Amino acid sequence: MNPPLTCDVAVIGGGIVGAAIARRLGGTSLSTVLVEGRDDVGDGTSKANTAILHTGFDATPGTLESTLVARGYHLLSEYASATGIPVERTSALLVAWDDEQLAALPGLCTKAEKNGYDECELVGPDEVYRRVPDLGPGALGGLTVPGESIICTWTTNLALATDAVNRGVTLLRGRRVVAVDDGSLTFADGSSLRARWVINAAGLGADKIDNLFGYDRFTVTPRRGELLVFDKLARAKVPVIVLPVPSKVGKGVLVSPTIYGNVMLGPTAEDLTDRTATGTSAAGFSFLRSKGADLMPSLLQEEVTATYAGLRAAIDRNDYLISLDASLRYVLVGGIRSTGLTAGMAIAEHVAGLLSPHLDVAPRPDLPAPPRMPNLGEAFTRPYQDAALISADPEYGRVVCFCERVTRGEIRDAYASPIPPADLDGLRRRTRAMNGRCQGFYCGAEVQALVSSRGEASSYGDASSPGDASSRGDVSSRGGASSCGGVSSRGGVSSRGDASSRGDASSRGGAR
Ligand SMILES: Cc1cc2nc3c(=O)[nH]c(=O)nc-3n(C[C@H](O)[C@H](O)[C@H](O)COP(=O)(O)OP(=O)(O)OC[C@H]3O[C@@H](n4cnc5c(N)ncnc54)[C@H](O)[C@@H]3O)c2cc1C
């Protein structure tokens, strides 16, 4: 039996928050392992949200969440420019539909200022309809939030995890933590990992991991948010994010353009007990349609392309729950409920700050450049539109998924990337394949063949089955224990730059 891996820091959870923390720590001299229970990173809540890059204008002032969302907005904006994560600066418009909501708008403007955001502006009904002519009748006024933007949550998660791997982090996928004993993590498959410090960024599972450390301080309630996605033909109707005026019962239902050129309506907010209940429901569908009928009746004439649901990791307090226990060498990052996409990088910075009295978290001087991610944004040039790219490599001209215009070149690249997809859904998150109007009805067979051949167009059907260990790209299964390294007495790791860990991840390049 192989000896357990060892490292300075193990980060549990390969969502946006865990990937951001692993990336931050991967930029130090500490050996870091990112542990994900599912077969892929970004397969939990981080894949199914409304994908808005929030300014934090409506956060509760004075909370940790308000500080980290505001900071995360700037950090992720800069990071998106550096890596090619698509962002559209659409702006948002809160719309008041009754006198009570209208009366609440000035207070929201003041709240935004308390949160350090002073760009909101109150507007009358004429301006509301000038900005969104297709809104339903009865809008009384609005509040503009120029900085609110839409972003690709899939690319964000993947960029952070890829960057982490490029920086030397060992990524273990398909390793669900089931036991913790004095710095030793045991996975469901029986393997284990010894870590000096453990960071719990397990999202919906964060309270269970917390229990393994002997705590009983919070319970995660999965709060389901269902959404409807409308066809791209609806996109012109929704030039900005249309937000409801928040009430005591939540943020309410919004209508928003998506980064892939569609329109979404949602989310619902429903507390459940089942942490795996990501299915949509007939009740949610009718609720959203009735909301949509008031907000924008003509939207309901458009085709619904897809429905999906995400689970917010709600806890019984109105803030993030981030706390360090030096005696256990353990950090809890819990309750990252509805703003974690935006705040992820700031949470990582905050966690590094908490660790700094205990570990050397100073950035290394020799960091690799951030990865350049494939563009999934509809507003920016895609490979099928790029004549120069196609003439250099005709695979970018061979469209496989016609709804979303995804080419063989992009699918090939996804499999050659540092973190290749584990299954069809993972491929969809990396390329948009099968994400369109036909939902794979026309392209499914060809995409499946490319999955089977790991993106090699010339060898359909002759390769390993999807989802096997090699297709998961589990870095440890390639680099073995040496990729993680032994923990030195100073906390630095001698094999930190070892060829197996770094070369394996970065030499496969992937991102164009
Ligand atoms: C409907 C909805 C809309 C939202 N809209 C927005 C928005 O517009 N903007 C915004 O900023 N935020 C939004 N959010 C919030 C945002 O999506 C989350 O805050 C964020 O994705 C949380 O990331 P995470 O890494 O904490 O969790 P996750 O993405 O869930 O990652 C946690 C990971 O931990 C893994 N894990 C759990 N237990 C274990 C274990 N025992 N062993 C190993 N791994 C484990 C899971 O498999 C999972 O991959 C929304 C959320 C929802 C549900």
TrEMBL record:
Ranges where the BFD-like [2Fe-2S]-binding domain occurs: 399-451
Positions with biased composition (Low complexity): 476-512
Species of provenance: Paractinoplanes bogorensis
Entry-linked SUPFAM superfamilies: FAD-linked reductases, C-terminal domain (SSF54373), FAD/NAD(P)-binding domain (SSF51905)
Domain FAD dependent oxidoreductase, residue spans: 8-353
CDD domains referenced in this protein's UniProt entry, alphabetically: GlpA-like_Fer2_BFD-like (cd19946)
Domain of life per record: Bacteria
Species lineage: Bacteria, Bacillati, Actinomycetota, Actinomycetes, Micromonosporales
InterPro entries: BFD-like_2Fe2S-bd_dom (IPR007419), BFD-like_2Fe2S-bd_dom_sf (IPR041854), FAD-dep_OxRdtase (IPR006076), FAD/NAD-bd_sf (IPR036188), G3P_Oxidase/Oxidoreductase (IPR052745)
Protein name (database record): NAD(P)/FAD-dependent oxidoreductase
Region span, Disordered: 457-512
